[in-house]
Amino acid sequence: MNSYKFTGKSVKEAIERACQELKVDEALLDVRVIQESTRGFLGIVGQRDALINVRKRDILREVMEAERPSASDDRPEEPSTGPKRDEQEPDRAAVSPSVEQDREAEPRAELPEVSEAKAVLEGILQRMTVETEVNSEMMDQAVYLDIRGDCSGLLIGKQGQTLDALQFLVNKIVNRQRPFGSKVEVIVDTEKYRLRKREQFREKTLKKSLQAKKTNKPVSLPPMPPYERRLVHMILADDREVYTKSVGEGHRRLVIVYPRRAMSNKRRRR
To answer: How far is it, in rounded angstroms, from Cα 106 to Cα 45?
Structure first.
């Protein structure tokens, strides 16, 4: 990848100049200081500007080349088959009100698959040397991970490509040893970017539904991941004029919206 040299009265000024001329955020630059600035004698003799060498970071490549955590690092311990003797539920009648209140105030423990996915994503982000915090929860039967920090634009990438790569990598690591039929779906988001796009996605889905009704012909949506296909089914589930069906295999799997009127017409012809 091309590298560029910039000068300034200070390293900070040189970096600002690089960002301005290359039209990128500092987080997208890999900066190497060649020489620091010096004031010289009386600020006149021997004065020297700072010199830096910069190149644009290929964040997408960094994501895909991130070292995978070992199985012992990213997999939680297997839960025991039963509670230990000293961890068994005490007699509720013998529990004082204050102890009962403390128990109710305790946060619920994360599901194993949520903890595992979160640990995998945090490991990847650490290797990318970005300062972030990951929030996790279950959403629509999937593990939802939202990355918080000042580098959301960096992690989203062009048209969401970097975020999609992160999501692909986390799903692959989390599910690599899971048996068929027990796969966990992980959604990787940053600053609710995907949730904001969800509303736009809803509008597009409703337009496809309207098209199917007007033309009385099936309308297909472009190939999409399982989470988005499930969204299409959910959005149109209550629409009595259309029904949806997923077809295809792998990354080519898509949803087709069928008008119910066309089905009723076929039945009448029979």
So the answer is: 67
